[in-house]
Design goal:
elongated; 155 residues; two-stranded antiparallel sheet; single chain; mainly alpha
Length: 155
C-alpha cells in the first residue's frame, strides 16, 4: 500500500512537471496511464519478489536485454495484477508477504518476526496460508497460472 502511494506521488509529480508539454487534453488519460505503468514497472524491478522465485524463464523475461516490448508489457501487467491482488489481502498477510518478498535482500524470518510480532516458527505456515489466499484472490479475479508463473486472464 505504501508503494501505491509512492507511485501515485511520482505520477502526480511527473504530470505536474510535464503538463506544459502535453499537446492535447484528450491525451491526458493516456499519459497518466503510460506513466503509471512505467512507474509500477520501475517499482517492481526494485522489489525482490520475482528474484526469490528463482525461475530462469521469468528472470530472462524481466531482463530488458532479452525481452521484447510485448513481453515487458505482459510482465508489467502481471505485476500490476499481483499488486492489486496483494492489496485485497488482510493487512497481516499483506505485510508478511511485503516484508518477505518486496523488501531488499533475502527473505528474513527474524526481521518479519520482529516487525509483525509473529513467532519465527509461525512465519513459514503463515506465509503458506497468505500465499494460498493470494492465489485464491487471483483465481477469483479470473487468472490462472502456467508452469512458468505467467498469469493469464481467463476469457
Amino acid at each position: 500500500r505504501e508503494e501505491s502511494f509512492d507511485v501515485y506521488g511520482q505520477v502526480s509529480y511527473l504530470l505536474l512537471t510535464n503538463l506544459d508539454k502535453l499537446r492535447s487534453p484528450e491525451k491526458l488519460l493516456s499519459y497518466v496511464s503510460t506513466t503509471t505503468k512505467r512507474e509500477v514497472y520501475a517499482l517492481s524491478k526494485r522489489s525482490k519478489f520475482f528474484e526469490y522465485i528463482q525461475d530462469t524463464e521469468l528472470q530472462e523475461q524481466s531482463d530488458p536485454n532479452h525481452a521484447t516490448p510485448e513481453e515487458l508489457y505482459r510482465l508489467s501487467k502481471n505485476r500490476e495484477v499481483l499488486m492489486k491482488a496483494m492489496a485485497m489481502l488482510p493487512q497481516r498477510d499483506y505485510e508478511l508477504l511485503r516484508v518477505l518478498f518486496f523488501e531488499s535482500g533475502e527473505p528474513d524470518y527474524e526481521k518479519a518476526s520482529a516487525l509483525l510480532n509473529i513467532p519465527v516458527s509461525s512465519i513459514g505456515p503463515t506465509r503458506a496460508r497468505s500465499l494460498a489466499k493470494l492465489k485464491k484472490i487471483l483465481k477469483k479475479e479470473g487468472f490462472t497460472f502456467s508452469h512458468s508463473l505467467r498469469l493469464r486472464r481467463n476469457k
